[in-house]
Specification:
Layout lengths: L3 E9 L3 E4 H4 L7 H8 L3 E4 L3 H16 L8 E5 L10 H9 L4 E5 L5 H14 L4 E9 L9 H4 L4 E10 L6 E8 L7 E3 L5 E3 L1 H23 L6 E6 L4 H11 L10 H4 L6 H11 L8 E8 L3 E8 L6
Parallel strand pairs: 4-5, 4-6, 11-12
Antiparallel strand pairs: 1-7, 2-3, 6-7, 8-13, 9-10, 12-13
Helix pairs in contact: 3-4, 7-8
The structure holds coenzyme A.
């Protein structure tokens, strides 16, 4: 249990938008195939992690009313950093005028939930204000001739400000897992392009989501009925549906932006979260379940009691 409270949030998508129809002009695919197999209709491309993160981070800080110099730690979840080193977090730290430690965290598409759980531990450890960003630009590493992968991914960033609070705990239960024996089914070499065994990723993703969600809920001492909003990793509508069915949670409880963003990796959960918050889908005291999976194979889930900021 931890006491960090989300006090600001924002997202950013790069300007260039590619619909399925746009894609079909240079890839052997159709809008119908992509929608039916994944639920995706469009995605944004040509983003840069440092640029998207800076915009989302700046707007989240403004919403929280936090002066950049008061941030005690910057965590940037990404697997597509602009360069091998320095960390994109260091570049974002400078652009935002922060004066604190800054690290990239790579847990692929599970990165935001890994970052959230980590941030909550730092608030327990005495850091008052943390800026957590999930951002990826997978359009830079997809093979645009591989129709099995290039239709799925997009770019984006989502940021939250987490502040220590004396109130009752907000992170009620969590689960972080990795199964490195499956590292080869979804990977990208330095300087290379994404390789994916789609069927195997699909099969394992459903099981990983279910297991992470159950473990986090068990540790929080809650059941599916107690959850108001599920924020799943936005990879594929069929994976989300299959996992929700196994968990016996109705689809209406899920936050969903996949259709217009594609799979934005570490940005996907904050993009869906912010969309749901902006739609007032949770009230004070409601429980949210965030659950993700990704290359690694990593998986992560967190049960959060919604304790909104009072402005
Ligand atoms: N457009 C049209 N046809 C396509 C296509 C595309 N974009 N991509 C693949 N196909 C074809 C294949 O070539 C194959 O043709 P064939 O039967 O003539 O050989 C056919 O469609 C079926 O391909 P298959 O790979 O069996 O499809 P699928 O039902 O498994 O769906 C995925 C493919 C990638 C959508 C699905 O496996 C998936 O979503 N996996 C998980 C991916 C994921 O979420 N990754 C990120 C995890 S963080």
């Amino acid at each position: 249990m931890a006491h960090g409270r989300i006090t600001g949030w924002a997202t950013h998508l790069p300007e260039r938008r590619l619909t399925n129809h746009d894609l079909a002009e240079f890839v052997d695919t159709t809008d119908e195939w992509i929608r039916e197999r994944s639920g995706i209709a469009a995605r944004h491309v040509d983003g840069k992690v440092t640029e998207m993160s800076t915009i989302a981070g700046r707007d989240a800080l403004a919403m929280a009313g936090v002066d950049p110099t008061d941030v005690g730690l910057l965590l940037l979840a990404t697997c597509s950093s602009d360069q091998q080193f320095p960390a994109s977090a260091s570049v974002v730290q400078h652009k935002l005028g922060l004066r604190c430690g800054a690290i990239d965290m790579n847990a692929a598409c599970s990165g935001f939930v890994y970052g959230l759980v980590t941030a909550m531990q730092f608030t327990e450890g005495g850091v008052d204000t943390i800026l957590l960003i999930g951002s990826d630009a997978l359009s830079s590493v997809v093979d645009w001739t591989d129709r099995g992968t290039c239709v799925l991914f997009g770019d984006g960033a989502g940021a939250v400000v987490i502040q220590r609070s004396a109130d009752s705990p907000t992170l009620l239960g969590w689960d972080l897992m990795s199964d490195g024996s499956a590292a080869g089914i979804l990977s990208c070499e330095h300087g290379g392009k994404i390789f994916m065994n789609g069927k195997e990723v699909f099969r394992r993703a459903v099981l990983a989501m279910e297991s992470a969600a159950r473990n986090a809920m068990d540790r929080a001492g809650v059941t599916m009925d107690d959850i108001t909003l599920v924020v799943p990793h936005q990879a594929n509508i069929r994976i989300i549906d299959a996992a929700m069915k196994r968990l016996d949670i109705p689809r209406e409880k899920a936050a969903m932006v996949l259709e217009r963003t594609g799979n934005t990796s570490a940005a996907s959960i904050p993009l869906a979260l912010v969309d749901a918050l902006d739609d007032d889908r949770v009230a004070p005291g409601d429980l949210m379940l965030m659950v993700g999976f990704g290359a690694g194979m990593s998986s992560a889930a967190a049960v959060i009691r919604w304790d909104p900021p009072s402005y």
